[in-house]
C-alpha cells in the first residue's frame, strides 16, 4: 500500500510513497525495487533539486496528515554493485540509478557515502534524531546495507 500523488508538470507524472510504521512490513532494497516494478513503476530517481524539493514537500504533507509518522528512512533507486569496487573510480562515482537515469544530481548527507559494505541508498527521515554535523537527518541521502529494512 502507499499514497499515490500525481502531477502534470514533472517528467514522472505520478509518485507513490510507501511508509510502514509497522517495522515488520519494512523491506530491503531489492524487495522494495521489485514491489515498485510489480506496481508498474521504479524506485525513485531524483534528478534535480526541484524534484528533491517536491518529494520533501510530499513527505512533509504525509507527516502532517495526522498519521503519526515517525522515524523511518525511505529507499530511493540509487545503488552500486559491489563488484565495481576494484575499479579506480572514486566510490561516490560508482552509484547508479536503478531505472537507468544518468542524472548526476546527488543530495548526500555530510560524510556520505561511506561506501564499504553499504551499497544502497536511502533518503533520511529521522525527525526525532539529534542533528549531526550535516544538520537534521531529514531528506539527505545515506548509503546503507541493502538488506536493511526501510
Automatic annotation (TrEMBL):
An example molecular function term from Gene Ontology annotations: carbohydrate binding
C-type lectin domain: residues covered: 10-150
Domain of life per record: Eukaryota
Localization (cell): Membrane
Signal peptide: none
InterPro entries: C-type_lectin-like (IPR001304), C-type_lectin-like/link_sf (IPR016186), C-type_lectin_domain (IPR051505), CTDL_fold (IPR016187)
Keywords: Lectin, Membrane, Signal, Transmembrane, Transmembrane helix
Cellular compartments per GO CC: cytoplasm; membrane
One BP term from GO: positive regulation of axonogenesis
PROSITE patterns per the UniProt record, alphabetical: C_TYPE_LECTIN_2
Membrane topology (UniProt): Single-pass type I membrane protein
Protein name: CHODL protein
Encoding gene, per UniProt annotation: Chodl
